[in-house]
Amino acid sequence: MAFGLIGLVGVIGSGAAHALIFASPDMEPAEAVPPDFPYWEHVTQRRYQGPSVLYLGGGWALTARHVGMGEVFLEGRIFAPIAGSQRTLLNLDGSPADLMVFEIDRSEGDPGLPLLPLARRPVERGDQVLLIGFGRGRARVVEWDADGTSQFGFQWDAVGRKRWGTNRIDLVGERVNQGAWSTITIGFGFDPPLGARTTRYEAAAATGDSGGAVFVQRDGTWELAGVMTSVTGTTGRPDATSTYGDRTYAADVAAYRSEILRWTRPACANEQDDDGDEAIDFPDDPGCRDLEDDDERDRTDATGSGLTEIAIALGLAIGGALALVFRIRQRGQSTPSSTSDSTAD
Fold first, then answer.
1. What percentage of the chain carries pLDDT values higher than 70?
2. Does residue 153 lie within any of the structural domains?
3. 127: containing domain
4. What residues pair up with 61 in beta bridges, in sequence order?
């Protein structure tokens, strides 16, 4: 049985739909929002029923590279991207990953959402994860013949809407090559009801879920662990169909965390001690005015190095200006011969 990568971005049609594909209708959660989950609004989508986009906070968004940047919805408003702000994330060997960040225009107001926690370490096999996206949903059951064997799956609806589901990690650190991109991923299979690994709200990604979120809960805190990018499935199936055994791949956020922070988090929000005072970020570092301050150095303490350096620089500037005035006055009092061109005798 052959397998192939299935892209998660497609042409969006019309009609009612659910996001994600669930293992059975009764496994779709009744609650619109996961219980005790504070980052629901951070998962959004491109305008015009586009694929999924994640808001990192501080004016920056994260999505799959093949999704691209565009206008996004946040808190009931539309935010345009800032031209030229997009950055494709890179692997250690310099090759591009299917992952990108871009900045949104907040000149007319901020979404007011907190910074999204990013996983410091990869998920592990067996970890249960939360999936959120704007992909297609499960429609009718379809059947087809594959080498004389009857196969069945679930046809996708025509348009996606935001929903959530769960799954269990079974793959970590897989390098997935797709077109021009090579991405370090985590993955999880689509298991049937009553399977040994099946979760309560078992779900898999579909078209439109690209850029969607994979969250893991650690010590009571939800962290972004992955960004959904693609699905592998058997070849020869009808188009726009999911089957048990499909595997969803997501870019491993922990693998790209340092570069995400580099582009999207200023010094007072990058989780590093940039000024060597053993205090990190706002509000713990006294030199930080807020989370968007790009300098941790203390500029408010009159005895601190920041103001001392300013005072020294100002003193040197004043001294230089006085010396220049003195020289000009001296030239004005010199004889004509003292201002003539020098000669080398």
1. 69
2. yes
3. 3-264
4. 55, 102
